[in-house]
Amino acid sequence: MENLKVNNRISAELVYRSTDTLIILGILLLASLHSSTYNIQGYLIIGLGASLLFGLIGRFTDIYTSWSGRPFFRDEVIRLIVTWLVTFLFLIFIIFAAKTSEEFSRFVLIGWLFITPVLLISSRYALRILQASLKRIGLNNHSIAIAGITKQGLHFAQMIDSQPHSGFQIAGFYHLEDDGTELELPRHYARLGDASAMKEAARTGEWDQIYLAPSSEQSLLSKRLINELADTITPIRLIPDDFTNTLLHSRYMEIAETPILRIYDAPMSVHHAFIKRIEDLLLGMLILLLVSPLMLGIALAIKLTSRGPILFKQTRHGLRGETFQVLKFRTMTVCENGKHIKQATRNDCRITRVGAFLRKTSLDELPQFFNVLQGHMSIVGPRPHAVAHNEEYRQLIPGYMRRHLMKPGITGWAQVNGWRGETDTLFKMEKRVELDMEYIRSWSLTLDLRIIFVTAFKTLHDKNAY
């Protein structure tokens, strides 16, 4: 059964790769036929190189992994665009470095740049619709059972139900132990029996997959079940509790021939930190160069329309909790920087007319690129909060200060996922911290570029900006 599923994944990846190659190579060759610069051999070499490079970069951006359960427009489309842009820019660099740019038409290359991602996205969307249709009529579906009526088990089931195109069908739940740790099972889920019934179903292969979802109090039971299920024919998977999830995201190292788990540690190696610093310096200087006329205009508008300084400085916590002065264009009639700081709210009377526009468009954040060049901030990272707010939330949210294991950013994973603006409830701050930690655990240069790309498009219509 597992071999069949592996073959299905390989076949799906082969279809995606073949389609991508046809589009990338085909568009370039078709465009070159209508060019006055007739260099079919050169275009063929560039097209084949682009196809191979796109596939290689796609390995790192995960465009060939299973799409089941992944949002298309908020996930796969962004990955495709980032992969294509990196591929194209790398090839252009090679062309200029080889001093062969005169052999290729700029019209062809620019057309190739814009048409290719449109067709890549369209083909992926069409393939999604086709595969989803096959799953709806019962082809390539997976029946799954969940063992453990717990918070993480119920959450997993609800997420599966919200994505019917994923091909997973929940058969029901097995309860593990009557020790008071399990929750009440919603009526629309079938109760399949106890742990003994689950083990028998695993042995007979009644379900395609069984997911174990024990609570943290059932760790001994979980260990026993995993050992007892070792000789079954059904794939067994574990939905981790909060403690296990923390361990899973830890890094392994060895000291004095002893395995060590780095649970709360610097998330980035020296090599990755160097790459991120180079990214910050290059992009920071480029962006400041491009927006410097705009910043001069904003400074003049602030000075002419309200009393007070042009820049607002506030003490924030940075890497490892070190304090620094974050820079912003002043948008309010006050400049709070003490033990008690009131967050900006919708229709806040303290916000100036110019400030309202700056906050809505996030232009008030532009001076923070100087913080980036100084090394206090990064372009992408957890947003820095006022020291007063840090002191408040570190008492309320476990692991809150772990956000400071990485430099704070002008934009971040939480912001592009909708958790920007006022945190008037504890839940909002918890979600922001959750996404910040997800970013820290899974940092990559590709993820940074993706966040920057999304931020550029999302800034002008963010409903949480005020």
UniProtKB/TrEMBL annotation:
<feature type="transmembrane region" description="Helical">
    <location>
        <begin position="77"/>
        <end position="98"/>
    </location>
</feature>
<dbReference type="GO" id="GO:0089702">
    <property type="term" value="F:undecaprenyl-phosphate glucose phosphotransferase activity"/>
</dbReference>
<comment type="similarity">
    <text>Belongs to the bacterial sugar transferase family.</text>
</comment>
<feature type="transmembrane region" description="Helical">
    <location>
        <begin position="104"/>
        <end position="127"/>
    </location>
</feature>
<feature type="transmembrane region" description="Helical">
    <location>
        <begin position="14"/>
        <end position="34"/>
    </location>
</feature>
<feature type="domain" description="Bacterial sugar transferase">
    <location>
        <begin position="276"/>
        <end position="460"/>
    </location>
</feature>
<keyword id="KW-0808">Transferase</keyword>
<feature type="transmembrane region" description="Helical">
    <location>
        <begin position="40"/>
        <end position="57"/>
    </location>
</feature>
<dbReference type="InterPro" id="IPR017473">
    <property type="entry name" value="Undecaprenyl-P_gluc_Ptfrase"/>
</dbReference>
<keyword id="KW-1133">Transmembrane helix</keyword>
<dbReference type="Pfam" id="PF02397">
    <property type="entry name" value="Bac_transf"/>
</dbReference>
<feature type="transmembrane region" description="Helical">
    <location>
        <begin position="281"/>
        <end position="302"/>
    </location>
</feature>
<dbReference type="InterPro" id="IPR017475">
    <property type="entry name" value="EPS_sugar_tfrase"/>
</dbReference>
<keyword id="KW-0472">Membrane</keyword>
<dbReference type="InterPro" id="IPR003362">
    <property type="entry name" value="Bact_transf"/>
</dbReference>
<keyword id="KW-0812">Transmembrane</keyword>
<dbReference type="Pfam" id="PF13727">
    <property type="entry name" value="CoA_binding_3"/>
</dbReference>
<protein>
    <submittedName>
        <fullName>Undecaprenyl-phosphate glucose phosphotransferase</fullName>
        <ecNumber>2.7.8.31</ecNumber>
    </submittedName>
</protein>
